Amino acid sequence: PKAGGRLFIKLMLPMEGKRGRPSKKDLKAMEKSIRWSLDPEPTRSIIAVILIIIGFVLLLSVFGGAGTFGNFLIRVLRIIFGYLVLLIPLVFLFFGTALFFPQRFALRAPTVLGTIAFIIVLSAIIHLFVLPESSFKVAGEGGGGGFVGFLISYIFLYIFNFWASFIILLGLLI
After folding, report:
1. What is the spatial distance between Cα 115 and Cα 123, in angstroms, rounded to a whole number?
2. From the centroid of its chain, how far is CA 162?
3. Residue 81: pLDDT band by 50, 70, 90 thresholds?
4. Could you tell me if 51 and 105 are in contact, meaning their C-beta atoms sit under 8 angstroms apart?
């Protein structure tokens, strides 16, 4: 039924407000009764499937088998991570598999952060071996450790020399 030019949906709640509308108290009760969260098990499975799909698409992209979008994605990831673009699909596949088997693989925040730190430090170590005068250009072309490796190695080479940077980054890698 139309009331005042607006369409109202009748709710099966006790109507305590004016003109047959639910009161604020009724609306708050209705909000509390709606459950918007999923159970952890299906959520984990959904995220696992998404990660595995991303991993396989990235893996296909590395070998040129994912079409135009895959080529674009790999070009962008190569500029960001350089030669470590080959490792990124494996990380997605590992995390997706780990979420499917939580009793076998304990996937916690330190594991995820450690993996991210490993990739960042390894890209910096790879980029240490690029000549400093062409370091930015090589990163832009998707070589070395990409822009992630360029940024971290540039900071370390600014503060330390090559060997000190290499030893510190190697220590962080371990």
Report:
1. 12
2. 31
3. very high
4. no
